[in-house]
Amino acid sequence: MLQRLRRPEVLLLILAASIPISFSVWNTLLNNFVIEKAAFTGADIGLLQSVREIPGFLAFLVVFVLLLIREQRLAVLSLVVTGLGVMLTGFYPSLTGLLLTTLLMSVGFHFYETLQTSLALQWFPKQTSAIWMGRMAAAGSFAALLAYALVWGLMNVAGLDYSWVYLIGGGVTVVIALGAWVVFPQFPQSHSQHKKLILRKRYWLYYALTMMSGARRQIFIVFASFLMVEKFGYSVGEIAALYTVNHLLNLYVAPKVGQLIVRFGERRILTLEYIGLILVFSGYALAESAAIAAALYIIDHLFFSMAIALKTYFQKIVDERDIAASAGVSFTINHIAAVVIPVLFGLLWLSSPAMVFFAGALMALISLGLAQLVPKRPGPGNEARLTPRLAAT
User: Fold this and answer.
1) pLDDT at 392
2) C-alpha torsion sign, points 252, 72, 217, 333
3) How far is CA 131 from the centre of its chain?
């Protein structure tokens, strides 16, 4: 029985479940922690989130680390670093302390996310990879639910301080990662990966969509969450409840999205995602009701699973030897906007929070236009619909 479970797919599902435990604890507590313990303003939270994204901007460095250690091992070690960063967070309630612990956590988190994408695209078959990625998203949502229950129990029932909750949440990820290191063997890779930076002209549409995706993600992670606390006064328990609803729905939605991508193709799913985001971001800008804002927050989170379509589109057009190097480069591209937006928009937030979300709607509109260039049947030589021959595909 154990031998049958020691497969690459099972390992990725376990690792996909381990990262949200520590990150969800970190993220759920963050806005309340920084406001209550460190007296953060919108500009401070923008700076913190920009620092958090710096390792994502440097994700291309993964390819050079792979000269020294295999992808599977590095992915597990990255989880350990993530957990350690979260464990230390509660002990340093100051701007400097939070910048340092966040940077440590973020190095592990972004390296792991880069390697997870690379390994998934190498290990999952193209025909069903969207379904497996949907299952990974569902596993992450289930783990996040456990993390929210942990936060609620430790703070509301046990009455523990923030520092203890961060310590326990990060520690769980470290234990799971070390367990995966011991239990699972080294799995072979079907193609030897390039150990150099890969930036190809024919991947331009993927790069453009990836950059816009990074910009959109910051609006949700940084400013939608901050809106719930600053404008509508949501407590830690209420934020945890929102996250709980998000992930309960995602347990059902994410696997279904994977199936829909297989059935309808990447272009249609991406189109649906970006139309929805235009409406959601506009709604944030205009919302004056805590209930309406909460509904928008839940809908916004559900669109995250549709980003699977971007990964499967890339899997279909990429040279299989480019996957590891391209995953690092794409994460760097994803974080070009992510490093800049929190700081600039944090300053904009001080004068007009609504303009932050209208800017997000504009980004979604640009993404919608780009998504129309994704072919019906993407593949090498058919990466974008730019010629009459490809327009019908």
Assistant:
1) 47
2) negative
3) 18
Contact partners, residue 347, CB within 8 Å, separation at least 6: 43, 46
How confident is the model at residue 195, as a pLDDT?
A: 63
Task: Single out the residue of 97, 344, 353, 374 nearest to residue 208, CA to CA.
Answer: 374
Distances (CA, A) of 267 to 203, 210, 255, 291, 312: 16, 14, 18, 32, 11
Whole-angstrom Cα distance, residue 230 to residue 224? 10
**Res. 390: pLDDT tops 60:** no
Q: Is 392 exposed, middle or buried (0-12, 13-18, 19+ CB in 10 A)?
A: exposed
How buried is residue 377: exposed, middle or buried, by Cβ count under 10 Å (0-12/13-18/19+)? exposed
DSSP state of 157: I
Pairwise CA distance, residues 151 & 153, whole Å = 6
Distances 25 to 147, 150, 274 between C-alpha atoms, Å: 6, 8, 28
Q: How far is CA 55 from the centre of its chain?
A: 13
**Alpha-carbon distances, residue 200 vs 11, 20, 319, 323, 330 (angstroms):** 31, 32, 10, 12, 11
Q: What is the pTM of this model?
A: 0.77
- Whether 111 shows a pLDDT value over 70: the answer reads yes
Q: Of the spans 26-40, 128-142, 352-366, which averages the highest pLDDT?
A: 352-366
Q: Average model confidence (pLDDT) for the chain?
A: 84
Residue 11: CA count within 13 A, CB half-sphere: 26
Q: How many CB atoms lie within 10 A of CB 224?
A: 21
- CA neighbor of 359 nearest in space, from 206, 212, 227: 212
Distance of alpha carbon 221 from its chain centroid, rounded? 9
Angle between helical axes of 95-123 and 71-89 (0-180°, round to 10): 150
For residue 149, which of 172, 178, 176 has the smallest C-alpha distance?
Answer: 172
Instruction: State the Cα–Cα distance between residues 190 and 8, nearest whole angstrom.
Output: 12
227 Cβ neighbours under 8 A, 6+ residues apart:
284, 293, 353
Look-up of token digits 């949700």: 220
Residues 6+ apart with CB under 8 A from 181: 73, 76
Instruction: Provide CB contacts within 8 A for 2, sequence distance 6+.
Output: none
